[in-house]
Amino acid sequence: MTVKDITRILEEFAPLPYAEDFDNVGLLVGNATNEVSGILVTLDTLENVVDEAIAKNCNLIVSFHPIIFGGLKKITGKNYVERVVIKAIKNDISIYSNHTALDNARYGVNAKICEVLGLSNTKVLLPQKNTIKKLTTYVPKNTIEEVKNALFKVGAGNIGNYSNCSFSVEGNGTYKANEGANPTIGTIGTTHTENEVMLTCVFGKDRESVIINALLTSHPYEEVAYDIQTIENTNQHIGMGMIGELDQEVSEMQFLNDLRLKMNAKLVRHSNLLNKPIKKVAVLGGSGSFAIGAAKTAKADVFVTADLKYHQFYKAENQIILADIGHFETEQFTKNLLVDYLTKKIPNFAIHLSESITNPINYF
């Protein structure tokens, strides 16, 4: 399998179009056509991780965090980022990152946290906007089923737990084929009227290119009339953070203790306790201060995240408990998630969970 084959599999799980605009995702180092000898999955790509990849004969590193985030104007080895890139290139090792694409994925980082904490009835905390598109096209009535099925086959018409969703209206379409045209129906120079169906269906923005290809391939006309619009509806399965419920209410101290143990946290920094039971829990892996308001609006009893600053703890305002367990700690199970997924997809391939320590924070 090539690097491109592997990344295509990864992008079925965490499509890159759902990554945040500020992020740097995808293949960061290497050639997509290289054949892969083995895959090393890590949270961060540091020099010791590249050394581990070399030792394990892995020439593709799948890293949650991107080693290249901003632009590199020079590659001289003066810092760890440049040294990693140089070492990877010297040893013909590719580096791929999916970062916020996996954060926003339906079964990604935050779904994994919910699983570890034993939460049920989960849903996205901050659904991502501008992720749903609508296709409108016009198809001769006698070929409408063929075109619909071609679109459904590649993911058009999927809404939540429903598939093959569309809406059709019959009408008459007109066109005149001019000199140089090759009309499927009608003759050059004559205005033709055809009994057509206006077909509409929605799709996720990550499917746009394959949807258009399926439409153009299955549609009988030489020139296909279609329109694609981004709609305002939010995608309830794509976005940052999640919220769910514990099977049973627990006391605040019991929850914080369970949180520390289940997430292997050295400590838990938290806002004032409110002396009420914990049932509804919001989570967001990594730096999640921007979602405090959403967690409060969702009536969560506690919000588990990382990297909260001193003054941000005041935003709890005695309405919620804010629990900061550390950036690495909230994302540590991400590499297990990716290994499990890749192993199911390509079970007879060399896939390794990195043993390198990449957490830059130590506790005394």
Tell me about this structure.
This protein has 364 residues and is of the alpha/beta class. The chain has three domains: 3-101 and 333-353, Udp-n-acetylmuramoylalanyl-d-glutamate--2,6- Diaminopimelate Ligase, Chain: A, domain 1 (3-Layer(aba) Sandwich), CATH 3.40.1390; 109-127 and 239-325, Udp-n-acetylmuramoylalanyl-d-glutamate--2,6- Diaminopimelate Ligase, Chain: A, domain 1 (3-Layer(aba) Sandwich); 132-230, Alpha-Beta Plaits, CATH 3.30.70.120. Helix content is 27%, strand content 27%. It has eleven helices and 15 strands. The strands form three sheets. It has a six-stranded mixed beta sheet with strand order 5-10-12-13-14-11. The protein has a five-stranded mixed beta sheet with strand order 1-4-3-2-15, with helices on both faces. Belongs to the GTP cyclohydrolase I type 2/NIF3 family. Keywords: Metal-binding. This is GTP cyclohydrolase 1 type 2 homolog. InterPro entries: DUF34/NIF3, DUF34/NIF3_bac, DUF34/NIF3_sf, N-reg_PII/ATP_PRibTrfase_C.
Structural class, by secondary structure, is alpha/beta
The residue-averaged pLDDT reads 96
Shape: globular
What is the first-to-last residue Cα distance? 45 Å
Largest sheet: 6 strands, mixed
Task: Estimate what percentage of residues fall within beta strands.
Answer: 25-35%
Q: What fold name goes in the CATH topology slot of the largest domain?
A: Udp-n-acetylmuramoylalanyl-d-glutamate--2,6- Diaminopimelate Ligase, Chain: A, domain 1
Low-confidence runs (pLDDT<50, min 5 residues)? none
Please work out how many helical segments DSSP would assign.
Answer: 11
Query: Which strands sit side by side, in order, in the main sheet?
Result: 5-10-12-13-14-11
Please count the beta strands (DSSP E, at least 2 residues each): 15
N-to-C SSE string, H for helix and E for strand: HEEHEHEHHEEHEEHEEHEEHEEHHE
Number of domains: 3
Work out the helicity level.
25-40%
- The CATH superfamily of the largest domain turns out to be NIF3 (NGG1p interacting factor 3)-like
Indicate the radius of gyration in whole angstroms.
Answer: 25 Å
